[in-house]
Amino acid sequence: MTMLGFYFLFAPVIALLKWIPLVGWLLGGIVAIAAAIFAFIVGGTISVLVIAIAWVFFRPLVGIPLLLVVGTSCYFIFFYQWP
Q1: CA atoms within 13 A on the CB side of 17
Q2: Could you report the per-residue pLDDT of 62-74, keeping only the tens digit for each?
Q3: Residue-wise pLDDT tens digits, 17-52
Q4: Residue 4: which of 27, 38, 29, 30 has the closest Cα?
Q5: What is the pTM of this model?
Q6: Which DSSP string corresponds to 6-60?
Q7: Nearest Cα to 9, choosing from 29, 25, 31?
Q8: Among candidates 30, 38, 27, which has minimal Cα distance to 5?
Q9: How far is it, in rounded angstroms, from Cα 22 to Cα 24?
Q10: Is residue 50 a contact partner of residue 68, using CB atoms and an 8 Å limit?
Q11: How many other C-beta atoms lie within 10 A of the C-beta of residue 14?
């Protein structure tokens, strides 16, 4: 649901771009794909973070690796220099 919510944040921008004559469908499609990728990455990271925090209290051997996955994901989102 988090991923869907992040995608819906971009729905008005996608709808506005589709109003542009001749190239609106292309721009709307590109922004829709970019919004879906953004929603998947950020929403997935937040979802795994919440799950990991819950698991740390009940099964630390499962929760701690999930926190490492979240930390790695945050590193790639914020600090990794893409070529």
Answers
A1: 14
A2: 999 999 999 999 9
A3: 989 988 989 999 999 999 999 999 999 999 999 999
A4: 38
A5: 0.81
A6: HHHHTHHHHHHHTTSTTTHHHHHHHHHHHHHHHHHHHHHHHHHHHHHHHHHHH-H
A7: 31
A8: 38
A9: 6
A10: no
A11: 19
